Amino acid sequence: MSCKLLSFIGTTSYIESYYAYNNKSSERPYQFIQEALVEFFCKEWKDDNKLIIFMTEESKRKNWLSKSECEDANFDKGLRERLEKVKKRFKLKFDVRNVEIPEGKSEEELWIIFEKMNESLNDEDVIIFDITHSFRSLPMLSLVVLNYVKFLKNVKIERIVYGAMEALGSPKEVREMPIEERIIPIFDLTPFASLFDWTIAIERFLQTGNAEMMRKLGIEELKPLLAETKGEIGGGLRELITSLDKFSQNVLTCRSPESKSTIERILNAIPKAEKELEKLKPFKPLFGKIKERFSCMQINDVSFGIEIATWCLEKGLIQQGFTILRETIINYVITNILKCNNLQKKTYREIAEVMLNNKYEEIPPEVLNLWHEIVDYRNDINHAGWREQNYHSSTDFERKLKEFIERGRALVERNND
Description:
There is one protein chain. The chain folds into three domains: 3-188, Rossmann fold (3-Layer(aba) Sandwich); 196-295; 301-416. An eight-stranded mixed beta sheet has the order 3-2-8-7-6-1-4-5. By secondary structure, it is of the alpha/beta class. The protein is elongated. The model has no long low-confidence stretch (mean pLDDT 90). The chain contains 16 helices and eight strands.
């Protein structure tokens, strides 16, 4: 694992300027933003870290090389020579590499650029990415590459930055400014990449019920937010994400009583999280999807079992769905036939199961029929299909679970009426 700063240079004759990041100005003006990036982000780097500059053949001549090396060069001292000077000033020894790329004027050339960027990154690298001088479709292509290597190589994107000279005015206006006023802001675009990650994480949770990616993002991104705002922003979001992850684990392991209390915590955490999201507006609609799904859940004991079984069906958790639905029928008998409220008492559950298995006349036929059909499918799936009789095809389970849930919901609604 190593830290890498990836950047591009073009062919423009760049204007010497100060740069500012996080309300702090560079110590001196620089001809190239890459010099300022070393000052801001690389002063603590180890020797095995790397600064990688992508360039076309023309940009290499114009800005990478010095006039002593190439007559076409824009400056007496090109970027290569200037970076060595900055490294020497800060006593740094990391490698600086230039990688030549085509201009990206065809799909074939774009794929070459993709491969060049991919080959520059190794497993578990930590990346700072500068898109200031990326041209044409390169910013979009770069984001595609970064997301690709995040998955393939477990690369971490520490920061995405952009030097916004246009914030000062046109190139002509900037050139005419006194150099002490020529301070180019460096924008941190990392939150936009984070928004993309959160979109995927929330979509994954709502599609599969797995909150692991949300939990990992919460650990990585909310911790500095909590520290920066002294707990003013992030506490409610952390509680919501922690509860969602707990709910995910509860459902995967069929912890129905815990799932019920966890949903109550989720519903209680949503209002506080919404207030915090007023300051993080793009995130609010994403978490609104979670609110929309959980707010409609009924959490009384029998209906809740139907709700969780439905959640399992939606997320493809078929085995969990059958297990939870079976126990929900027992809850129905304890509540409506035995007229008891303690659903976890072993004696009550044993009595209810005996009544169901032996088809006691106190239990309505539609409940008995549903029970025995659920038990048949649940036993088949829990015994991994190792049965001589009543063997069901893998394609049957989802369809039957949906049918059983609908029948169970009808029983609960009829009883409530």
